[in-house]
What does this fold into?
Amino acid sequence: MSNFAGRTIHGIPRLALRHAENPVLAIGGLVENPQALRPEDLSSLPRHSWLGSVSCLERGPIPDTDWTGMRLSDLIALANPRARARYALVSAGPYGVAVPIDEADEVLICDQLSGHPLDVTEGGPWRLVVPNRRYYTSVKWIDRIELTLDADQESAERIGLARQRAREAKRGA
It folds into this structure.
C-alpha cells in the first residue's frame, strides 16, 4: 500500500506525482491471480465513456464532463475474483471507495478526460468515476483495487465530510 498523505506540490501529493511517472495498478485481496498492471497492459480492454455531472461537497455541482476508461468489472475479471468477494475497494493511498461488485459494470476507471489522456493534475493516471454518486467517490491517482468481503475500509466519505467540516469551521472562525 502506498501512502499519499503528506506534503503536496500545488495540491498534488508528492507520491501521486511519483506514481504518475511509473504507474502501476495493483489488483489484489480476494482474487486468484493478483495483478500489477501498467497502462500498456490495459490497452486491449474495451473502452467506455460517460458524460455527466456530479455533485461536489466543496464546490457544489460540477458541470457535465466527458470521461473515458475501462469498466471496473473488466479490471476485476483480470484477477479472477474469489466467489466470496463482495466489494472492490478502489484506493489511492489511504483514500478509498468501496464499490459493490454487482455494481462494477456501471463504474469506470478513467484514463481520459474530454478525449485526452488524464493528467496527474486531473487525477491521472487513473481516476474512479461512479455515475450518480458524490464527487468524493471520484478517487484520484488510483494505485490499487482490493477485493474484499465488506466495505469497512472505505474512507472517502469520512475524509470528505471531515474536510467539509474543517472548511466550515475555518469560515466561522
Confidence is low (pLDDT under 50) at residues 1-9.
